[in-house]
Write a structure and sequence with these properties.
heterotrimer, A mainly alpha (330), B mainly alpha (288), C alpha/beta (379), A: 330 residues, mainly alpha, 4 strands, B: 288 residues, ABC transporter involved in vitamin B12 uptake, BtuC
Chain lengths: 330, 288, 379
């Protein structure tokens, strides 16, 4: 196995093991932040697939997040199914939604694709508000995950911090793995080709529509899973919360901050995004404007992302140092 | 029914005004300004700031529009200029970042509580034939929009500035080759486009409320209008705006309440699925 | 080297991230408030905060609890379920509040109730009107405000018999507050021979009510029934005049608050409202509260200032009675509490619901003048 892969496994294992003790060490408030960071990380990885790998700006991923959240919420409160069972269901619902949306939206390119996906996001929100019999409308669905499940004599309280944390660590790890595998596979190569040289790729016969649809569907499944965990953790889903544009921002900033197309970047970006308000306490109110400005600056000056820049900095410094030493010798 | 139509037309004209700016910016600069709603918002909030300090309405409106255009010029110079030759997704991300920055900075500066701007006209409604009631402000708004549209049309068709803009729309590189200052034209166009949004923001803000998040709603409606009418088409923006205003108003009366807002987005999806270039759009949207 | 660099970077980030002081001064008693200080109900939410702070200041000036001062922490619930639960969790886990008041809107309060149960923290509410909040009983939740079924009993009768309105068009906010109002009033109206000929709901933050008002106009109703808060209410009334409507308006919500008068101006005139407060409430506790308030602040304390005051004062009275800040003792003190508030005696029944006075007011000259008083505890 390659070095990054080993490192990833080690980090995941450590994170999982630490999970038992973590709430006591850092307290419930920070535990909440960590869990939200992980949810954002999942979302960022999901958007990364479409935006980073395929280069398509989707402003509609909140639709998949929301669909997953509502699917989990409705089934959990009606049938009391446990989270574990609901994860694949949420993923499937989100994937089906993505398939349907993709059939229409993927015929567009660039900004038009962005506008259409954004529109679907708004439609989803309005539907959630109005289909009161299904979704309880603006009142939202509350009390999700109230009943723990029993397996072999162990009760698993689905809403507890430790359980959610453990599930999220595993999910983020798996998503990272899947993303990595996809990137190295023929799909990843096809996506890169389409992103960087669209017409050329089409000319050599890469089935762009089907590739795009695949990227969107897998990406949606990840977002849907994030939604399901979110529903259980916060125990409340409401239309103007899970379908809001704020989710788009929460996905976009980690991806661009961390580095589009990389895997570690968006994850770290997600943690920065979640923890920033704690440390910019003096500039608390200015957090979002600063992030907006950051986004603009990044796009202009460092499109590969801040985190990637930082991680590669020592290499570049070493190279420059070596070069300087070599020149000095002459 | 007539009342619904009348109210719908008035709102539709306002939508058209916002969309006009967006369409203009797209036509000349070839970018989709995701921050367009924020310029709409700035117009409204600046108007509120000026009127609440005691300045009278119309000078304040002019001041708000001017102030917004200044902001637009600065943004074009700092953000859009470095990205002139970048790809669409990069520029879209940049304008999204701007949108986030402006909307949230406004939240800090003006606070989250919505504000009212007192109307410069009396509150007595005007009764038109057919039992249609319109407020004087609505009538003024509609008239002002028509005047502005007429003026824009004249400028584009009959002035040197307008000719230069149209030249850049046709072929940016050719225009540069014949010596036009393309960068200046971009800047002017962007400022004018944002200024139009600011006027709409001031008018609609006075009719309803002003608050920092008002931009998101507006830009979504603007997108709907330009998609329906055709991106880059002047008359398309007008037609699209009226159509959307009417559809929403009539829909609001007949559809179950709450579905009124969905009209715009269903129309976006339908148009893009069936006739991507919009009703009157000439520009080819790249499709598969 | 890259490997170790990444490792150390990660470790530093983690270390910095996870060490942070909790905000809790050991010699102050923390109480919490989840209120909508932003969004479409912000005008009213900010009044609630002002009222709550007033109660805390009053208590602290009188010596606090055995010399210990109370500190009020306020978090923005935005009147939304998800934000309110996050706010409540933050107050409980971060600020470690002894008890809290939450969350203004019925839907948001509903979402906060399980949090109270989860952490076993007493939660008091003086604003939400959805009947189901106290039915079934939630052991840690207490409500000082009468709910929509109680209100319907008296107000619907008033509308049908005193105002003689038979065909009402209802325009209500689309949440638990608005919907439960319509549901609660329909059967009582029917009992007295009246009905809703139109029922339409609007979302929080809606600004354009022309279509709804026009629809109401076209049904030939003889009265307009509105459910909403200051911002929506003001916009509705302004557009009501814009459309040349002349129907009597009976409302539920913020329609007699100073914020409503400010926002609606002359459009507020003549509107009826049924709430636990109005201008000219003349029991001793009310008079005392009003004059104390007017000494410190300009103007008459509106409904939500009063509500915030009652919510916090209830918690403080319970704390005084229990003589401790232990949450369980506080809960027990609340269960047996009886204190004379500006809106009547606050005493909780078996479902932790208080029955107080209700006033029907009519807006005259920028004031919500009391035209009828009902004592809901007498039934």
């Amino acid at each position: 196995m390659s070095r990054p892969l080993v490192l990833a496994c080690v980090v995941a294992a450590v994170a999982l093991a630490a999970g038992g003790a973590l709430p006591n060490v850092i307290g419930p408030y920070f535990m909440r932040l960590v869990i939200f960071s992980l949810i954002y990380a999942l979302l960022a990885l999901s958007l990364n697939l479409t935006l980073g790998f395929r280069g398509e700006l989707s402003l509609g991923h909140q639709t998949f997040f929301g669909v997953g959240a509502y699917a989990a919420a409705i089934l959990a409160t009606t049938y009391e199914w446990p989270l574990l069972l609901l994860l694949p269901i949420a993923a499937a619902c989100a994937a089906i939604t993505a398939f349907a949306i993709g059939l229409v939206a993927l015929r567009m390119r660039g900004p038009y694709f962005a506008i259409v996906t954004l529109s679907f996001g708004v439609i989803a929100q309005i539907l959630a508000v109005n289909l009161v019999d299904l979704t309880n409308g603006p009142m939202g669905i509350s009390g999700i995950g109230a009943t723990p499940s029993s397996y072999l004599g162990f009760t698993v309280p689905w809403r507890s911090d430790i359980v959610c944390y453990a599930m999220l660590v595993i999910l983020v790890f798996l998503s990272g793995l899947i993303t990595f595998a996809l990137r190295e596979s023929k799909f990843g190569r096809a996506w890169r080709a389409l992103r960087d040289h669209e017409d050329l790729a089409a000319a050599i016969g890469i089935p762009d529509f089907r590739m795009d649809l695949l990227a969107l569907v897998i990406s949606a499944a990840m977002a849907g899973v994030a939604g399901a965990v979110y529903a259980f953790y916060t125990s409340v889903v409401a239309p103007d919360d899970v379908f809001s544009f704020a989710i788009v921002i929460a996905m976009l900033i980690p991806v661009v901050l961390g580095g589009r197309g990389t895997i570690v970047g968006p994850i770290i970006g997600a943690f920065i995004y979640a923890f920033a308000p704690e440390y910019l306490r003096i500039a608390q109110d200015w957090r979002l404007p600063i992030f907006g400005l950051l986004l603009v600056l990044l796009v202009i000056l460092a499109p590969e992302g801040l985190v990637v820049l930082a991680l590669r900095a020592p290499e570049r410094l070493r190279a420059r140092f070596r070069q300087g030493a070599a020149e000095a010798r002459e | 029914m007539l009342q619904d139509l009348a109210s719908g037309l008035v709102i539709g004209l306002a939508y058209a005004l916002i969309a006009l700016g967006l369409s203009l910016i797209f036509g000349v600069l070839r970018i989709i300004n995701f921050a367009h709603g924020e310029f709409y918002m700035l117009g409204g909030l600046m108007l509120y700031s000026l009127t609440s300090r005691g300045f009278s309405f119309f000078p304040s409106l002019a001041g708000a529009v001017f102030g917004t255009m200044v902001v637009a010029i600065v943004i074009d110079w700092c953000v859009l200029k470095p990205l002139r030759r970048s790809d669409e997704v990069t520029i879209a991300l940049a304008t999204l970042g701007l949108s986030i920055f402006l909307a949230n900075a406004a939240l800090v500066i003006w606070g989250p509580v919505p504000h009212q701007i007192p109307s410069p006209f009396s509150m007595d409604p005007l009764v038109l034939p057919g039992g249609v009631y319109l407020s004087r402000l609505e009538l003024f708004g509609a008239a002002a929009t028509l005047v502005i549209m007429g003026a824009m049309h004249l400028v584009l068709q009959h002035t040197s500035v307008g000719r230069q803009m149209r030249a850049v729309v046709q072929d940016r590189d050719a225009a540069a080759v014949v010596g036009l200052n393309v960068d200046l034209i971009y800047r002017v166009t962007f400022a004018v486009g944002c200024g139009l949004a600011a006027v709409a923001g001031g008018l609609l803000g006075t009719m309803f409320l002003v608050y920092p998040a008002m931009g998101l709603q507006a830009v979504l409606k603007a997108f709907a209008v330009v998609v329906i009418g055709g991106m880059g088409s002047f008359s398309g923006a007008v037609a699209g705006g009226l159509l959307l205003g009417l559809a929403e108003s009539v829909g609001g009366a007949w559809l179950p309440s709450g579905y009124k807002d969905i009209v715009a987005f269903i129309m976006i999806v339908a148009v893009l699925a069936l006739r991507p270039q919009g009703l009157l759009g000439a520009r080819q949207v790249r499709i598969r | 080297m890259l490997f170790s660099f990444r490792c150390s970077m990660f470790a530093t980030i983690a270390a910095v991230a996870l060490t942070s002081p909790t905000a809790f001064a050991a010699d102050k008693i923390p109480l919490g408030l989840v209120a909508p200080t932003s969004g479409s109900v912000a005008l009213d939410g900010q009044q609630q905060v002002a009222g709550a702070n007033f109660a805390v200041d009053e208590f602290n000036k009188a010596g606090g609890l055995g010399g210990k001062q109370v500190e009020l922490f306020v978090e923005d619930g935005e009147c939304k379920p998800a934000s309110s639960t996050a706010a409540a969790e933050k107050l409980i886990t971060r600020n470690e509040v002894v008890a809290l008041a939450a969350a203004f809107c019925s839907s948001a309060t509903k979402a906060v109730q399980p949090i109270a149960e989860k952490y076993q923290v007493p939660v008091v509410n003086g604003i939400s009107s959805d009947p189901s909040l106290t039915d079934p009983l939630r052991p840690w939740f207490f409500r000082t405000k009468i709910h929509n079924v109680t209100r319907g009993k008296y107000y619907a009768k008033f509308i049908a018999e005193d105002l003689k309105l038979k065909k009402l068009a209802a325009i209500a906010v689309d949440d638990d507050f608005g919907r439960s109002a319509v549901t609660a009033f329909t059967p009582v109206l029917k009992q007295y021979g009246s009905e809703f000929v139109l029922v339409r709901y609007f979302k929080h933050g809606e600004v354009n009510f022309i279509s709804l008002l026009n629809a109401a106009k076209e049904t030939g109703a003889d009265g307009l029934f509105l459910v909403g808060e200051a911002q929506d209410g003001a916009l509705i009334m302004k557009q009501y005049y814009q459309l040349g409507l002349k129907l009597p308006v009976v409302a539920l919500g913020s329609f007699n608050t100073p914020q409503f008068f400010d926002a609606a101006g002359s459009a507020a005139e003549g509107v009826y409202n049924a709430e636990v407060w109005g201008e000219g409430v003349d029991n001793a506790a009310a008079k005392h509260f009003v004059s104390a308030w007017q000494e410190k602040n300009k103007g008459y304390p509106g409904l939500y200032a009063l509500s915030g005051y009652v919510e916090l004062r209830t918690l403080l009275e319970a704390m005084k009675k229990a003589g401790s800040t232990d949450r369980t003792k506080l809960k027990e003190a609340l269960e047996g509490l009886s204190w004379d508030s500006p809106i009547g005696t606050i005493k909780f029944d078996a479902k932790h619901q208080a029955l107080t006075l209700m006033f029907v007011t009519r807006n005259e000259g920028g004031k919500g003048v009391v035209v009828a008083t009902f004592d809901t505890s007498k039934d």
